[in-house]
Each structure stands twice: as structure tokens, then as C-alpha cells.
Write a structure and sequence with these properties.
With about 375 residues, this protein is α/β, with parallel strands linked by helices. It is about 50% helix and about 15% strand. The protein folds into 2 domains: about 20-115, Winged helix-like DNA-binding domain superfamily/Winged helix DNA-binding domain (Arc Repressor Mutant, subunit A), CATH 1.10.10; about 130-370, 3-Layer(aba) Sandwich (Rossmann fold), CATH 3.40.50.
Length: about 375
């Protein structure tokens, strides 16, 4: 996840907050501007294939990069120089003629920018943030009129970026470490249980569970057609299409019972979370487990907040809340769904309450609904 610009608000010995001076806040805002430009450059590097070319082909001149990516040399040169100035790329000879300079992507940045299954692969979040900037006019209109901007309107940057950001977790620690740490979840996965993945998106959570636990079968449900189409293709490529099925449908239409019913980072986006949780209650077998993974935000509102709180509010004001409010009658949860909010939704859906599971993750909290 991205590191927000640190707040310059400080506290006195008595605990009272002190506001930054004009110079301090100007410095903070200027740092944020540099960060925004950096994110825009990363977006270009991703979309144009620059990072992948540099990671695969070693040191390249601007002409070589442009040729490999089918782009214009003059733009490629300026982008390379920007990335070198920002310390992303190494350049062999800064005194050489511009067209003769060779640029290299070091191993550390290469992992962050191109290794799609590395936990350090933060680039998709840059794509989300930059992509959402394309919709600022629509967001301004929504803020003024009280409407929303739907997930479909945000397009491929949000849809693909979100899936890619969660992919390392969904293929790695989540199915292989986190879920098996819950005894009855581990039993269901070990004994070839049935799993329902509610709001499955592009399918990485369902695919990760199937890859880590060869005996299980998984049904994924989502109402976003492009996401479901991509999920089906991803399952085929991963070799689990015989055990993982994706349904372009509201989970309310599902039948049968499941040993594990899970919703991974999506309940806060739902316009009617109580109805969805009630469906999850209905789908769970008598001894089944209902699991929700959502944002690891603070239990109560505090200001200033930590970096997780800052980034989650950043998502909320530009994506999750506008998406939620694009639906008539939405409860408008937003990204910052605190435990008490989920507890209230769960009780209204027929559960007795929620249990925060002892799974340690910086950005996500895991709940069992009882």
C-alpha cells in the first residue's frame, strides 16, 4: 500500500494538537505534489509497458525503449530522465548525449513495479489513484448533487488495479497462512469443503483458495460482468477451472449450503450490506463459517489518524463512497467501515455478533460472524 505524506500536526506534552505553520504546511503540500507527479509517471510507465521492458531487457536507451514499446522516442526520453531524476532508474553516464544514455531498472524497484505476485507490488495502487483522477469532474458533480459515480464508470483502472493490488495476498498469505490459522476453517479446507466467495471480483481470492487447498470447490459471485469474465479466464490459466466456478449473479440467487462463506474486502462497498450478510447467513451450512475481510481501520475516529486510516479515507472520498452512493437507497458505508458498523450490520442480518480473528495484517481485519 502507498505511504501517505506524513502529517505535520504535532501534540504538546498535554496531548493537545498544534496546527502546522504556513511554511510547514506548504512544505507538506509540495511533497504531496511531487508524490502526485510520481504516481502519474508510474501510471504512464505501467500503461505503456516501460517498466516491463526495462525489467526484461536490461539497460536501454530512449530509442530502444520506444522501439520495444511502440511509443514515441521523445516522450520515452523525457519519462526516462524523470525516473532517473526521481531515483527510480540508474543511468550509466549522465554526461552522455541524451540519446546515448542507457537506463537500468534496479532489482528492488523492479520487484515493486513488475512482480505481480510479490507482496511489495504496489504499482497497481498507483494505477488506481491516477485512474481515479480521470473522473474528478464526475466526482465534483456527485459531491455537489449528492449522487454517485458507479464502479462501472470508474472503468478498467479501478477494476484491474484493485484486483492486481490484492492478488499477492489472495494467492499467498491469505489462503496459505491466514485461513488455515482458524481451526474450523482449516478443517473445511482440508476436508474438501465447499466455499462461496461473495463479491469475488476478478477471482484471485477464489483461485488462491483452490490452489492452496486442492480438495475444495469454490463458487464465486459478482455482479460486474467484466470482472466475472476475467475471473473465468484467470481460473483457466491457473488450472483450477474444474473446481472454481464464477457466476455473474447476485449471491441472493445462490442455492445450497457452504462450509465457508466469505466476503473479501467488499462489504464496505455494498449499498445494502445487511441483505448481503443475510444471504451469507442463509448459505452457510449449520456448522459452516461466515468470514468477512475488510479494512483494518481504527475502532473509533481519531484525528490525526495513522497511515492506514489516511489511505482508506483517500479511497473512500474518491471511489468507495461515490460508488456506494451511486445506488438508490444505499447506506453509504464508505471504505472506513469500523468494527462496530459491521457488528450492527451483522446483527440486523440475523447473526449474534462478530468476532475479530487473531490474524495480523497491516491493512486488513478478519471477522467471523456468529
Amino acid at each position: 500500500m502507498p505511504t501517505p505524506i506524513p502529517t505535520t500536526t504535532t501534540t504538546t506534552d498535554s496531548g493537545a494538537a498544534t496546527a502546522p505553520s504556513a511554511d510547514e504546511f506548504a512544505e507538506r503540500l509540495f511533497g504531496a505534489i511531487l508524490g502526485a507527479q510520481f504516481v502519474q509517471a508510474a501510471y504512464l510507465g505501467d500503461r505503456l509497458g516501460y517498466y516491463r521492458a526495462l525489467a526484461g531487457d536490461g539497460a536501454l536507451t530512449s530509442t530502444e525503449l520506444a522501439t520495444r514499446t511502440g511509443t514515441a522516442e521523445r516522450y520515452a526520453r523525457e519519462w526516462l530522465e524523470h525516473q532517473a531524476v526521481c531515483g527510480v532508474l540508474a543511468v550509466d553516464d549522465v554526461t552522455a548525449e541524451p540519446a546515448a544514455r542507457r537506463f537500468t531498472l534496479p532489482a528492488g524497484p523492479a520487484e515493486v513495479l513488475t512482480d505481480v505476485v510479490s507482496p511489495a507490488h504496489v504499482l497497481p495502487i498507483a494505477r488506481i489513484v491516477a485512474g481515479l483522477g480521470l473522473h474528478l469532474d464526475a466526482l465534483v458533480a456527485a459531491y455537489r448533487g449528492g449522487g454517485g459515480v458507479g464502479w462501472g464508470e470508474f472503468g478498467a483502472d479501478a477494476r484491474e488495479g484493485q484486483a492486481a493490488a490484492n492478488r499477492p495476498l489472495f494467492l499467498g498469505a491469505m489462503p496459505r497462512e491466514y485461513l488455515p490459522s482458524v481451526p474450523d476453517v482449516a478443517a473445511a479446507l482440508r476436508d474438501g469443503g465447499r466455499v462461496a466467495d461473495i463479491g469475488c471480483g476478478r477471482g484471485w481470492s477464489a483461485i488462491g483458495i483452490a490452489l492452496a487447498h486442492p480438495g475444495v470447490t469454490v463458487d464465486g459471485y459478482d455482479v460486474d460482468a467484466p470482472s466475472v469474465a476475467a475471473a473465468r479466464a484467470n481460473a483457466v490459466e491457473a488450472g483450477v477451472a474444474d473446481r472454481v466456478r464464477f457466476h455473474l449473479a447476485d449471491a441472493a440467487t445462490a442455492t445450497g449450503r457452504y462450509d465457508l462463506v466469505a466476503a473479501f474486502e467488499c462489504v464496505h462497498d455494498m449499498p445494502d450490506p445487511v441483505s448481503v450478510l443475510a444471504t451469507m447467513h442463509r448459505l452457510a451450512a449449520p456448522d459452516g463459517v461466515v468470514l468477512v475481510m475488510d479494512e483494518n481501520v481504527a475502532e473509533t475516529f481519531t484525528a490525526p489518524g495513522n497511515e492506514v486510516e489516511q489511505v482508506m479515507y483517500g479511497y473512500s472520498i474518491t471511489c468507495c463512497l461515490p460508488d456506494g452512493l451511486s445506488h438508490e437507497g444505499s447506506v453509504g458505508t464508505g471504505t472506513v467501515m469500523r468494527p462496530e458498523t459491521l457488528r450492527r450490520y451483522a446483527v440486523d442480518a440475523g447473526f449474534g455478533g462478530i468476532e475479530v480473528l487473531p490474524i495480523e495484517d497491516e491493512f486488513f481485519r478478519f471477522y467471523r460472524l456468529r
